[in-house]
UniProtKB/TrEMBL annotation:
EC number: 2.7.2.3
Alphabetized Gene3D superfamilies for the sequence: Phosphoglycerate kinase, N-terminal domain
Positions annotated to bind substrate: 25-27, 64-67
Self-association state and partner proteins as the record states: Monomer.
Gene Ontology biological process terms in this record: gluconeogenesis; glycolytic process
Binding site for (2R)-3-phosphoglycerate: 41, 122, 155
Keyword terms, alphabetized: ATP-binding, Kinase, Magnesium, Nucleotide-binding, Transferase
InterPro entries recorded: Phosphoglycerate_kinase, Phosphoglycerate_kinase_CS, Phosphoglycerate_kinase_N, Phosphoglycerate_kinase_sf
Protein family according to the UniProt entry: Belongs to the phosphoglycerate kinase family.
Cofactor: Mg(2+)
UniProt protein name: Phosphoglycerate kinase
GO molecular function: ADP binding; ATP binding; phosphoglycerate kinase activity
Length: 401
């Protein structure tokens, strides 16, 4: 992916008095009383917004929240205004819509350095259809475009891709820039040795990532529910563990591909098995080749943790996507927590550690180690697609540097 023009390339002369349409990802979780339960995404959007405010722009913020069908009050962005105002140190104004006359009046009234939050852009079905007329209406509010919503960059929607056709320049925000630098940079040009740790329950959702990484890594560590499909492909009994029967040939071919490319592929040597899928299940550690009938593997065992840790000690760059076990249950969280701790420790020694979205991020947050990693991706699907080597429409739409 070519290097994109960034908001940091724009100076006072480009920004002062200009109306800037900023697509941010404020899709935060709310509780039943509409309190924000995790403001990570709002905090992640702050540097770009502050930069624009500081250079005298009139900032127009656009985001989605949830998957509303039409105008749905419970998906309104209104509950976000107090926290956003607090973080930005200004009173953020809120519109009741994202297009139309009332919005145009509010934009016209914005002072330099002022911030207006538009209502949920997904209240219009045209947003997800990337309808050109709708994109034109959004774009008509502003002079230029900044996309800082990496989490939706893999979607070609009106506010993520469509508006860029009508606004020049169209540039990446700081968060988008950091995501691309780390995720594209690490995969294209990693400091070696380069290791990837891929986990999660199914091989099928990670095929693209595994195949793409096999061409780049020196070490590939596999864990999580997907490991049982690999065990079964190797002829091991897996008890009642999760297996994708239709992916056994694929697992075999991935093992062969790794061998042919000289990639050191590590599967867990021991497993924590349980007599049922529950937090209070009876559990024991067994060798990978000895899972008893009626038992299911829910985590990697202590021997695997040791082997994995030792192999990671040799690396300079590590990407991690997907947990090692059912970390939501305390009893089966040890493998995932051990990986998080190891990466935090290596990060302190100068190793580049990248947490590639999804459940791994939750696991690192849970372990309280988020601030120790080099980079934590804010995009689940978007980071997976980048690691698979796919082009993201929201990024392609931006001007090249």
């Amino acid at each position: 992916m070519a290097t994109k023009k960034s908001v940091g390339d724009l100076k006072e002369a480009d920004l002062k008095g200009k109306k800037v349409f900023v697509r941010v990802d404020l899709n935060v979780p709310l509780d039943d009383n509409f309190n924000i339960t995790d403001d990570t995404r709002i905090r992640a959007a702050v540097p770009t917004i502050k930069y624009l405010m500081g250079h005298g722009s009139k900032v127009i913020l656009s985001s989605h929240l949830g998957r509303p069908k039409g105008v749905t009050p419970k998906y309104s962005l209104k509950p976000l205004v107090p926290r956003l105002s607090e973080l930005l140190g200004v009173e953020v104004k809120m519109a009741n819509d994202c297009i139309g006359e009332e919005v145009e009046k509010m934009v016209a009234a914005l002072p330099d350095g002022g911030v207006l939050l538009l209502e949920n852009v997904r209240f219009y079905k045209e947003e997800e259809k990337n309808d050109p007329e709708f994109a034109k209406k959004l774009a008509s509010l502003a002079d230029l475009y900044v996309n800082d919503a990496f989490g939706t960059a893999h979607r070609a929607h009106a506010s993520t891709e469509g508006v860029a056709k009508y606004l020049k320049p169209s540039v990446a925000g700081f968060l988008m820039q950091k995501e691309l630098d780390y995720l594209v940079g690490a995969v294209a040009n990693p400091k070696k040795p380069f290791a990837a740790i891929v986990g999660g329950s199914k091989v099928s959702t990670k095929i693209g990532v595994i195949e793409s990484l096999l061409a780049k890594v020196d070490i590939l560590i596999l864990g999580g529910g997907m490991m049982f499909t690999f065990y079964k492909a190797q002829g091991h009994a897996v008890g009642s563990s999760l297996v994708e029967e239709d992916k056994l040939d694929l697992a075999t071919s991935l093992l062969e591909k790794a061998k042919a490319k000289g990639v050191s592929l590590l599967l867990p040597t021991d497993v924590v098995v349980a007599d049922k899928f529950a937090a209070d299940a009876n559990s024991k550690v067994v060798p990978a080749s000895g899972i008893p009938d009626g038992w299911m593997g829910l985590d990697i065992g202590p021997d695997s943790i040791k082997t994995f840790s030792e192999s990671l000690d040799t690396t300079q760059t590590i990407i991690w996507n997907g947990p090692m076990g059912v970390f939501e249950f305390e009893k089966f969280a040890a493998g995932t927590e051990a990986v998080a701790k190891k990466l935090a420790e290596l990060s302190g020694k100068g190793v580049t550690t990248i947490i590639g979205g999804g459940d791994s991020v939750a696991a690192v947050e849970k372990a309280g180690l988020a601030d120790k990693m080099s980079h934590i991706s804010t995009g689940g699907g978007a980071s997976l697609e980048l690691l698979e080597g796919k082009q993201l429409p929201g990024v392609l739409a931006l001007n090249d540097a």
